[in-house]
Amino acid sequence: xxxxxxxxxxxxxxxxxxxxxxxxxxxxxxxxxxxxxxxxxxxxxxxxxxxxxxxxxxxxxxxxxxxxxxxxxxxxxxxxxxxxxxxxxxxxxxxxxxxxxxxxxxxxxxxxxxxxxxxxxxxxxxxx
Length: 128
Hints:
- The protein has one helix and eleven strands; from the N terminus they run βββββββββαββ.
- By secondary structure, the chain is mainly beta.
- The chain is globular and about 40 Å long.
- The strands form two sheets. Strands 2, 4, 5, 6, 9, 10 and 11 form a seven-stranded mixed beta sheet that branches. It has a four-stranded antiparallel beta sheet with strand order 1-3-8-7, with no helix packed on it.
- Strand 4 and strand 5 (46-52) form a beta hairpin.
């Protein structure tokens, strides 16, 4: 199994920044991509950013391009999400996820029902 633990969430004002971390443990060889998803109250969970852990290639959903950056530290089995220029609409519970399937990052972010490994989430609140 793979265990994912998120941290770094909190409350900031519009325009502020946060860095989320996702530490993986267990059978980390079972996944080749990791990503961040978010779910706002009353809304469906959506993919935000993803990274191939081997190549470092990344993909972002349009709403966060230019503001969020996903990165990794393979030695620590940790993926980060640097969030800048935060907006109230970024308020959500943020989840880390991992998968070992052989498809692209865009599909990974959209096919949530196929992802086997999820963290418990960390909350982000952006106030205006």
